[in-house]
Amino acid sequence: MKIGILISGRGSNMAALIDAVGRGAIPSAEVAVVISDKADAVGLAGARERGVEAVVVERRGRTREEHDAELIEVLRKRGVEYVCLAGYMRLLSNDFISAFKDRIINIHPSLLPSFPGLDAQRQALDHGVKVTGCTVHFVDEDLDAGPIILQRVVEVLDDDTVESLSARILEQEHAAYVEAVRLVASSRLRIEGRRTFLIENEAVGESNS
Ligand code: GAR
Fold first, then answer.
1. 137 CA distance to ligand 1 centroid (A)?
2. Domain range for residue 73?
3. Are 139 and 179 part of one and the same domain?
């Protein structure tokens, strides 16, 4: 399974995925390329240090469709089958979503459908929830809305700031993203409407034979 990762910034989830592939925690997966829409994304260096090709594809005043067409081309040239969004802070066009239908995965720092969009951790604090967390989900045409693969819960503490809460969520994000991509790579996930189900091992064998 060839994976392409899209980033816009720090790239810690990207690094967690590349490192997991490197230590064999996601069998049969390979990270073929990392693409950033920002030339100064810190994650670009992190990808290169890990021996993964890192490419910048900036928007440069083009329409979303034109920008995404270049992304699709870069990904296809490298044989990418699955796209992981890791802090990619741009909406994808419908063209992109159809090009990788049911094969785009995103991580979001809240328990969706609560707190979609920007500043999810601040939204959780402002709302006063007692638990929040992170969600790994397939991407569809709506913002932070596709079928959920898995979620991890993080308690909100009385003295939490955006920074302290974000740090604890991020720790869970790294583990959750690796686990979710491992499930997808194992072909044991079935999407049915808004829900995803884990197929038992025997059933996977039958469907492969
Ligand atoms: C992560 O917390 C990720 O969940 C969030 O941006 C951060 C990126 O960190 N993504 C979103 O909010 C997407 N809606 P990273 O660059 O270190 O992986």
1. 13
2. 1-101
3. yes
CA-based nearest residue to 182, from 5, 24, 13, 11: 24
- What is the CATH classification number for the domain harbouring 69? 3.40.50.170
Nearest ligand 1 atom, CA 144: 14
Closest atom of ligand 1 relative to the 86 alpha carbon? 18
Ligand 1-lining residues (CB < 6 angstroms): 7, 9-13, 43, 86-87, 107-109, 120, 170, 173
Show Cβ contacts of residue 95 under 8 Å, excluding neighbours closer than 6 positions. Answer: 65, 68, 69, 72
Q: Count CB atoms within 10 A of the CB of residue 2.
A: 14
108 is catalytic: yes
Task: From first to last of the 209 residues of the chain, give the pLDDT tens digit.
Answer: 999 999 999 999 999 999 999 999 999 999 999 999 999 999 999 999 999 999 999 999 999 999 999 999 999 999 999 999 999 999 999 999 999 999 999 999 999 999 999 999 999 999 999 999 999 999 999 999 999 999 999 999 999 999 999 999 999 999 999 999 999 999 999 999 999 999 887 665 555 54
Listed residues 84, 101, 118: the one ending a domain: 101
Q: Are residues 20 and 67 in the same domain?
A: yes
Verify that 111 and 97 share a domain, yes or no.
Answer: no
Backbone angles phi, psi at 58, to 5 degrees: -85, 160
Nearest CA to ligand 1 atom 10: 87
For the entire predicted model, the pTM comes to 0.95
**Residue 66 sits in the same domain as residue 140:** no
How many separate domains does the chain show?
Answer: 2
In terms of Cα–Cα distance, which of 128, 38, 25 is closest to 90? Answer: 38
Ligand 1 mutation target, pool 7, 12, 13, most atoms within 8 A of CB: 13
